[in-house]
């Protein structure tokens, strides 16, 4: 789904459900990152950095509307990737880590 580049709002119901499963997995991964469950997060996340950035780009409007309270792990991942702006929102325009 992230390879197609279709924004979250334009996905079919089935595709949206699949995409939300991905977001839930990323949220869980971010929580693990925040709790320092990886001794070397750069090594663990290096190979999936690009797909994570694509997923966040496609869903940033929804994630920002829901906020950090709903998606704490995703916001942690976005911070790790340097994708949080001055207002604490996910922004694809921010520098890449």
Which tags fit this structure?
0% strand; 97 residues; globular; single chain; mainly alpha
The 3D shape can be described as globular
Secondary structure tally, helices: 4
The largest sheet is: none
Kindly, what is the distance between the CA atoms of the first and last residues, rounded to a whole number of angstroms? 24 Å
Question: What is the string of helix and strand elements?
Answer: HHHH
Rg on CA atoms, Å: 13 Å
Please tell me the overall pLDDT: 90
The count of β-strands is: 0
Give the uncertain stretches in residue-range form.
none
Q: Which range does the strand content fall in?
A: under 5%
Structural class by SSE content: mainly alpha
Helix amount: 55-70%
């Amino acid at each position: 789904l992230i390879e197609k580049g279709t924004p979250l709002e334009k996905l079919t119901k089935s595709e949206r459900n699949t995409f939300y499963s991905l977001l839930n997995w990323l949220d869980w991964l971010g929580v693990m990152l925040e709790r320092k469950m990886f001794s070397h997060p750069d090594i663990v996340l290096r190979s999936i950095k690009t797909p994570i950035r694509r997923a966040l780009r496609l869903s940033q409007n929804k994630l920002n509307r829901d906020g950090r309270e709903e998606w704490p792990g995703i916001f942690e991942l976005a911070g790790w990737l340097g994708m949080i702006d001055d207002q604490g929102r996910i922004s694809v325009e921010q520098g890449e880590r």
